[in-house]
């Protein structure tokens, strides 16, 4: 197994010469084509690109939800490709937080129980002060004993963000976290991810189609046809939209 040294400068996650081929033979699709990218610690990175450009594949391979066909994926200094399934499961549970488009809360559990679920599954005690901070930041202190069905979509996604942060993961990977939300609820969720980075020293990687969402990030990576084609520091929604139009005038952003 490859072990990276120089821990102080390590990115939170990294993929190196990542290739992912889905399917075989005539149905083969090269979803990632030699992508090398760092996801810096304590930064908010957005991944953008046209539909089918490989965004979700990159996120899933970087997060250990899927395996690369060739190349390497690292979480900190740990190479994921070298891990047996059981250790990968533990790594995902203990070192990574996930937020999905469809909130994925457990309907029978309360808000509080949903937030602490990853810790409960790992048999770890909740850090009371950290949980109190999270509950305060997500603004759901008066809803802790409600069920997900009693919450709005935006509130449910805020619970999902709190759940992702509960174990103080090394990276939160978010796949279209605002895709099912109206713009106001989406802005609240994005503000929460931003605060997790700025005030709680967390690292966030988010796939999005939305230039406004990408405008909350510290850097935006642009994929096209499975390749990393550009990167933008200190993005704004307007600059991201312009860049998307320049890449592919046929995309929605270009219409
Ligand atoms: N399990 C799979 N089996 C076969 N092909 C797949 C699979 N998953 C993804 N693909 C293909 O790989 C390519 C990249 O897909 P991916 O979902 O990563 O793109 P994306 O940029 O996230 O797209 P979208 O924005 O539409 O979600 C696409 O051509 C897709 O059809």
Automatic annotation (TrEMBL):
Residues 13-250 form the ABC transporter domain. SMART domains: AAA. CDD domains: ABC_MJ0796_LolCDE_FtsE. Gene3D superfamilies: P-loop containing nucleotide triphosphate hydrolases. One of its GO terms (molecular function) is ATP binding. Keywords: ATP-binding, Nucleotide-binding, Transport. This is ABC transporter ATP-binding protein. InterPro entries: AAA+_ATPase, ABC_transporter-like_ATP-bd, ABC_transporter-like_CS, ABC_transpr_LolD-like, MacB-like_ATP-bd, P-loop_NTPase. It comes from Kitasatospora nipponensis. It comes from the Bacteria.
